[in-house]
Structures are given as C-alpha cells and as structure tokens.
Amino acid sequence: MQKINKNHPIILASNSPQRKRLLEDFAISFTVIPANIVENIHPQWSPEEAVVKLAQQKARDVVERNLNLLQQRKFYAVLSADTVVVLQDKILGKPRDNEEAQQMIRGLSHQKHRVITGVCLYSLENDYVSDHCTTIIELEPMTSQQIDTYIENNNVTERAGGIDIENIGSIRHMEGNFNNVIGLPVEYILEKWFF
C-alpha cells in the first residue's frame, strides 16, 4: 500500500462535526463532500462487517460523483467511516427518536459495550482499502433523571447508540482508541494509511 501524504488534501465523505474536528485536530487538509447512501445493515452481517461495508459504500458513492477531482489531483483520497455501538452482540445505530435513545442509553450506562468504526480510504494509487477499529467501553451508571437531562441537552439521534462520549459523563472503563468512540480512529488511520 502506498501511503498518502497527510498534507495533501482529501475528501471526507461525512458531515459529522466530530469527524471534521478530529481531522482538524490532527492537521489533515480536507474538504467535506458527504456520502448520499441509505445505511442499511443486513441482519447476516457481523458488526465489523457492517461498519466496513457501510464505509465502503460511502466512499464509493463520493468517488463515483467526484472521480474527476481525484484524477485532476485536486484531492488525493476519499476517507469515509461508519460507527456502531454493540451491546451483547446487538448493533445499535443512531436512535430514531428520543424514546429509543433513552432505551439505548439505559442499557449502555452500566454494561461493557463495543464501539466499532469501519473506515475506508480510496486513492488512485491504492483503489479501496478498508479496516475497522474496536474500543471497549463501560460508562458509569446513570439515573433516569441523568439520562433525561443528557437527552434534552444533546442531539442523540445523530450518534450511534445515542452516545456523545464527550458529553455523557464519566467513563468507568475503556480499552482502545478514545477517538474511535468519538467517531474516527485518527491515530490508527494515520499510522496505517498516511505519512
């Protein structure tokens, strides 16, 4: 695999404010062109398979609509990601509404769970490369009132499992990459695909 220079501009196939901020924090030059796909997880897919396949679909969508920009070297790569929370082998995506978010957060607030992010990078040199990163996390238990207050003050329907790790409260235990829980394992991506 030919690594990409992190100073060359890339396309981020996501509108996520957290992913944008993480790339900015690591001084990666990027432009946002969000993917336009329907995110369907097939029941036979494992969580790892699901996030990688969704990240690949997002990258393909953006590449197909912007291949000329890559060929002209206006951008050197397309980076996409998809994150899910997994509790007892059940995939939790983004909650449909606050009620579903409350159920998800209640289940997550006192049990170990996995946050899995699939990432895909397209470049002319490498075509598509994909991988995933897993972080195991356990939050401190939350009361119903704490959950309600959290939901009132956060956009829970935009986050896998309804969890915004930076605003939810205390972490009891974590194994793995914290930025993965935010939505993009930047250190992992930089080490693997950039120089």
From TrEMBL:
The active site is at D82. One of its GO terms (biological process) is nucleotide metabolic process. Its EC number is 3.6.1.9. The keyword Thylakoid does not apply. Its cofactor is a divalent metal cation. CDD domains: Maf. NCBIfam families: maf. PANTHER family: BIFUNCTIONAL DTTP/UTP PYROPHOSPHATASE/METHYLTRANSFERASE PROTEIN-RELATED, BIFUNCTIONAL DTTP_UTP PYROPHOSPHATASE_METHYLTRANSFERASE PROTEIN-RELATED. This is Nucleoside triphosphate pyrophosphatase. It comes from Uabimicrobium amorphum. The lineage of its organism: Bacteria, Pseudomonadati, Planctomycetota, Candidatus Uabimicrobiia, Candidatus Uabimicrobiales.
